[in-house]
Design brief:
Keywords: Membrane, Transmembrane, Transmembrane helix. This is Glycosyltransferase family 18 catalytic domain-containing protein. It holds the Pfam family Glyco_transf_18. The protein is α/β, with parallel strands linked by helices and about 600 residues long. Among the domains are: about 10-75, no CATH class; about 100-230, no CATH class; about 370-545, Rossmann fold. The protein is about 35% helix and about 10% strand. The protein has 19 helices and 13 strands. It has helices at about 10-25, 25-45, 50-75, 95-100, 105-120, 140-155, 170-180, 185-200, 210-220, 240, 285-295, 315-320, 400-410, 430-435, 450-460, 475-480, 525-540, 550-565, 565-580, and strands at about 165-170, 205, 225-230, 255-260, 275-280, 355, 375-380, 415-420, 440-445, 460-465, 485-490, 505, 520-525. Strands 7, 8, 9, 10, 11, 12 and 13 form a seven-stranded mixed β-sheet that branches. A six-stranded parallel β-sheet has the order 2-1-3-4-5-6, sandwiched between helices.
Length: about 600
């Protein structure tokens, strides 16, 4: 069918026809217009009347709408395209933690929650994410969901305090805890940090150990990122690949990257000491000096501690914050000491890493059981059978020591026994080629979850270390339950037995600051000390004790200090000194970087 464009005459006539039909009405007018219409049709030379009528009817409708509604259109305020009419009608469960906020924060959080919940229905997680076939994409879903929440709160002006401050977790052990329930030392630390940051309203993004993804996240919101916690290398790239340089202006600035290592005294940051973040404090002469300033490290009537931390009760610790090594010098006020041997030499200043502890809480679950109500049970700290064998460098290579000690001690302490909760974690071929059995004299409780482990531990009178694992959180947990810890150590030929700083090794570096009756330090391989320490620990009950540096209060002070330090300014000073040939930092990885 050929489309013919009407003439101006026919347009005017049709407008007149439809307008008179709509406005005047009535049969008379309709008849007259019908005759006029026939005349018009004759003049149009057979044009398609149906198409013409439809076209001009639409023109009239549009014109009428503009005429009649134009005054009100300008008064309508625009709404974001993602806010449909049903936005506020969705039912949303309010998390308990929101109910504890102050009224203004609570109102904003609830409003934002409703907005975000509506978005989540359109961005549902894929059930296959996290499986081997899909590359463990679950961490990306979390982070992108958090970015959507940020967008919503910014667009709707409902951001909570600190919500636009972002922390990126990029260490593989962070990922193992968050997605696989790992509860080793790094997992416990991750749980404490995430709990605190969440309580304070910070946005936490997950990045596994994926440096490419960390770069991707950072460059979307560079002005919001407070810090990245990760290791220098990962399964997907390295920090050096993504670091900001003169030629890579959109890289991640080194001063925003904190190298996490659970163990203290590792210096692997390119910037400097304070960019190394650790979960345990360790032990040094500085603690001893601080301890001597606090009345010789008195523990009241219960003995003496060696250093600043272990030498105080909780009451004494509250008044000594400024004397602690962990608080001293963290804002760039160096102590002026010489560097540690092998880490800088003459003239270099002492190390000063960022210490953020995990939290050790007073016993609640399980409840504290007074020592006199517990059986004469010694809990051995060992998750795997191989810890008793040479590959793990056990403190007592002669595995017969446990049966001999049991036969001696059960005569003095009725019902005495060693217990452990461990398994053989090797593969089937390894187990066949080299069978490993638990030493005689030990009862195996089997593999346990965290709750059952702590229940069994709470029912013991002593925790015994056998050399591995080192710096485990478990001895801290034992002390919080009123259970002393026996910690094996080794020495050099020139070591001073009274000076832990000179020892070659210790199962728990931080707890070298405590002495009997809280921690019994026993020479590796010394059977007499082994039995004597167990005997004294069973005979000398202790009350629950938590090192002041492992409390929630101190944890939160350290996290708050980290979050509120001007790291760029500190890095600028270090960089300027470095360029001028004055090095103030430790480690083999320090170098130049771009601010």
């Amino acid at each position: 069918m050929k489309l013919v464009i009407p003439s101006s005459h026919s347009i005017a006539y049709n407008f007149k026809y439809y307008f008179s039909f709509l406005v005047r009405g009535g049969k008379k007018e309709a008849d007259k217009d019908k005759a006029d219409k026939k005349q018009m049709m004759a003049s149009s030379k057979g044009h398609n009347s149906g198409l013409r009528r439809l076209l001009f009817l639409l023109m009239i409708v549009v014109t009428s709408l503009v005429v009649f509604y134009r005054p009100s259109i300008s008064d309508i305020k625009s709404s974001p395209y993602f806010l449909p009419s049903s936005w506020q009608s969705a039912s949303t469960t309010i998390p308990p933690e929101i109910q504890t906020l102050i009224p203004n924060e609570r109102a904003m959080a609830i409003k934002q929650l409703k907005y975000a919940a509506k978005l989540e229905t359109k961005f549902a997680p894929n059930p296959n994410w996290g499986g081997r076939d899909h590359g463990r994409e679950d961490y990306k879903y979390h982070s992108e969901n958090e970015l959507r929440k940020l967008a919503v709160c910014i667009a709707t002006d409902t951001c909570r305090q600190n919500q636009t401050s972002v922390i990126i977790l990029g260490h593989i052990f962070n990922h193992f805890h968050l997605y696989e329930g790992y509860m080793g030392g790094e997992g416990i630390w991750t749980a404490s940090l995430v709990e605190t940051l969440t309580k304070w309203g910070y946005t936490i993004l997950h990045a596994r150990d994926d440096w490419v993804y960390m770069w991707y996240l950072y460059n979307q919101i560079p002005g919001m990122v407070k810090g990245i916690i990760a290791w220098r290398t990962g399964q997907f790239g390295t920090f050096e690949d993504q670091m900001k340089t003169g030629r890579r202006q959109h890289g991640i600035p080194a001063w925003q990257f904190f190298v996490y290592n659970y163990f203290p005294d590792h210096y692997t940051s390119i910037v400097g000491d304070a960019w190394n973040m650790h979960s345990e404090f360790g032990y040094s002469h500085e603690q001893r000096r601080s301890g001597s300033r606090s009345k010789g490290g008195s523990m009241g009537d219960r003995g003496q501690g060696r250093g600043a931390w272990g030498g105080w009760t909780g009451r004494e610790a509250k008044g000594r914050e400024g004397e602690r090594r962990g608080e001293k010098g963290r804002e760039g006020e160096r102590r002026g000491e010489k560097g540690r041997e092998g880490e800088g030499g003459e003239g270099r200043e002492s190390a000063n890493f960022t210490f953020i502890p995990y939290v050790v809480e007073p016993a609640t679950t399980p409840p504290y059981i007074p020592a006199v109500q517990r059986p004469n049970q010694v809990y051995i700290l060992a998750k795997f059978v191989r810890y008793f064998y040479n590959g793990a460098q056990p403190a007592w290579e002669d595995r017969g020591i446990f049966l001999r000690a049991k036969q001696i001690l059960e005569k003095e302490f009725p019902g005495f026994e060693f217990v452990v909760g461990c398994r053989d974690d090797r593969n089937g071929d390894q187990q066949k080629q080299n069978p490993m059995e638990l030493p005689a004299g030990i009862r195996n409780l089997g593999q346990m979850d965290k709750v059952e482990f702590e229940r069994q531990l709470a029912n013991s009178r002593v925790m015994l270390g056998i050399g591995w694992p080192t710096l485990s959180p478990s001895p801290h947990v034992a002390l919080s339950l009123g259970i002393p810890f026996i910690s094996p150590f080794s020495v050099h030929g020139w070591s001073d037995l009274e000076d832990p700083e000179t020892w070659a090794s210790s199962q728990h570096h931080t707890l070298k600051t405590l002495t009997e009756p809280y921690v019994y330090h026993v020479l590796r391989g010394n059977e007499t000390q082994f039995i004597d320490a167990i005997r004294k620990a069973l005979s000398t009950p202790i009350e629950p004790f938590i090192l002041p540096l492992m409390t929630r209060d101190h944890h939160e002070k350290q996290v708050n200090k980290w979050l509120n330090t001007d790291w760029k300014a500190k890095a600028a000073v270090i960089l300027e000194n470095r360029k001028n040939g004055r090095e103030t930092e430790n480690g083999n990885e320090i170098g130049e970087f771009a601010l």
